[in-house]
Automatic annotation (TrEMBL):
SUPFAM superfamilies: lambda repressor-like DNA-binding domains. This is Helix-turn-helix domain-containing protein. The keyword Kinase does not apply. It comes from Mucilaginibacter agri. PROSITE patterns: HTH_CROC1 (PS50943). The keyword Zinc-finger does not apply. Keywords: DNA-binding.
Length: 88
């Protein structure tokens, strides 16, 4: 079970980073919005820091993505990356 949870945390961290980059946001910007240092934010994206639900919801609001999207497999495309998927 620990391995599964660890894998899911890495997926969330990967999705946060991918979406942040696709929107052109810097780590410094998100860190400022969250009220933390860039170094602390970097550890979230690397999966070194366990993210709280409160922080997860705050990040999803900043990057304008539903929390559920952050929990998806990072290898699956987001609708914004493939417009045809949204119409299916």
């Amino acid at each position: 079970m620990t391995v599964d949870v660890s894998h899911k945390i890495k997926n969330i961290a990967s999705n946060i980073r991918r979406i942040r980059e696709s929107k052109g946001y810097t780590q410094e910007y998100l860190a400022m919005k969250l009220g933390i240092s860039q170094n602390a934010y970097s550890k979230i994206e690397l999966g070194y820091t366990k993210i709280t639900l409160e922080r997860l919801f705050h990040i999803s609001k900043i990057i304008e993505v539903e929390v559920a999207k952050l929990m998806e497999d990072p290898k699956s495309p987001f609708p914004s990356e493939h417009p045809q998927a949204a119409s299916l």
